[in-house]
Amino acid sequence: MTETSEQDERRRRRAAWRASDRKLWQSPAEHRIGERLTALAADAGRVYDLDEPIDSYGNGVVEALEARTAALLGFPAAAFFPTGTMAQQVALRCWAGRTGNNTVALHPMAHPEVHERGAFGVLSGLRTVHPVREPRLPTADEVRDFDEPFGALMVELPLREPGFLLPSWSELVAVVEAARERDAVVHFDGARLWECAPHFGRPLAEIASLADSVYVSFYKSLGAMSGAALVGPTELIAEARAWRHRYGGQLFQQYPAALSALLGLQRELPRLPSYVSHAKTVAEALTDAFRKRGVPWFRIVPEVPHTHQFHVWLPYQADELEEAAAAQAEQTGVTLFRAWWAAEGSPPGISVTELTVTAPGLEWTADDVRSAAREFLSRLS
């Protein structure tokens, strides 16, 4: 397939998703510029006084967002960043200067190792090591007994690549304590921390308090246009602001992103527990549909979702699954699945997709899910 035909196919799929009457979630790719601007203009006055002066290099509405985020996570200070990649670069660089050790222990499937082109080492002089290689978070013993010293332990909550996985609360506490025994600081990659509270059964501030610093995203769970925050001790955040400037992250005006983030905190954050709960219903209904249709092999990972996102594995080629999903959306107005891919290291002929449940998905009953799954499977050879 040529690059042009691939682009055409992506446009076709996005158009089908956008036109669907029923879907489990709304992809950012489905939005139009005018729609986002109109919605932001209509709703922003609910979270901030629009007669206030426009922000300039991080004051005004950006400061309001920082204060709100710090309060929610129980830290004294927060700094807004244009991207999570930059926020975590800065956080770990600052901690390396304080600990005197530039080695960061993290999972080999964590975001910086998979999606950031080696930025830790190339830009920040950080070295990474891996206490565990299995598709799960490390145990306390693996952290405690790791054979190399490290200055910081970075824990991604949830660990996205293997299926948005979370440890139990006691396991997480033990891992943090093991790092402390080694005189290491703990940093949470909390891009999706917002939806972890139901799994742990604890408020966000209590979860975040286990770490020395936390990064959160505003668009991955909350639907903002962009942006991230780093929360931590006042002195660390002050230094982080200096490095943010050096890295080119002190933007002149950021009010669209900041306002959309405040809206996400007001609107989406309270809804996340319902999304997490309903994801369990969706996963159970899919399992039932696959079994009754006699699918020779499949996996829901985790079997009971830890957040409102999880993985579905099926024994078909990715292009066949994507075509079936696109055709279902076009012909029935129902979008169940979207992009599929062959996971690295998996046997040939097995593909995986990420499934997300947000507000549109709450309208689906278990019978709706089973019906859509049966219709989807009927399109596969």
UniProtKB/TrEMBL annotation:
Key word Lyase present: yes
Highest taxon above the source species: Bacteria
Signal peptide: none
Gene3D superfamilies named in the record: Aspartate Aminotransferase, domain 1 (3.90.1150.10), Type I PLP-dependent aspartate aminotransferase-like (Major domain) (3.40.640.10)
Gene Ontology molecular function, alphabetical: lyase activity
Family: Belongs to the threonine aldolase family.
UniProt-recorded name of the protein: Beta-eliminating lyase-related protein
